[in-house]
Amino acid sequence: MNRSRRKHSLVAFPGGGRPRSPALKRQHPRLQVGQALFRRFLARAGVGGELHRGVQLFAADQFQAADRLVDSGAGHIVNLGSVAGIWSYANGSSYVASKFAVHGYTRALRDDLQGKPVRITNVAPGLVETDFSRVRFHGDEEKARAVYANVAMGGPLHAEDVADSILFALTRPPHVNIDEIVLTALAQTSGGNILRES
Predict the structure, then answer these.
(1) Which positions are annotated as active-site residues?
(2) Which of 2, 22, 75, 168 has its CA at 20 to 30 Å from residue 158's CA atom?
(3) Which helix (H) or strand (E) holds 31?
(4) Which pLDDT tens digit goes with each residue over 178-189?
């Protein structure tokens, strides 16, 4: 690897969550988190919090980022997808559609950038205990807590688990591209199939 080239990374969080682990920023100081950019694009387009409608804007932002990464000579785009982009679940059609779009877009962008010095990874976590459910249920704490309650076999994933996966992808040797990481709690086998303690 040419050590004079500085590697740039973009981790895009098109959903409502963002990493809470400071380890990501400490261990990868050139990291740019794309959610702030994504939200600015949403605000400009007047779509507010309807993130599922922002997938096209997310793609436009990533094309601009990809150009900058190609110009830098080395880069990595990490999209935070979801198992909802692989398996659907009841009462989540808009979210599922947006995550299927992120999954497909990541694959297509990988093809579009073949031969360029940019690695591309989709990280698709399952049930992660974050503020996501509070946002989804418009601040209803009881409904939000119920999503993560009584998950068997050690409980749901945590933000640090996802951050560790992102760090794994970012820290591979330059010739290695981790296309996709799918991670779930041990009790979760698909989007909506989660074993709960009784």
Answers:
(1) 95
(2) 75
(3) strand 31-33
(4) 999 999 999 999
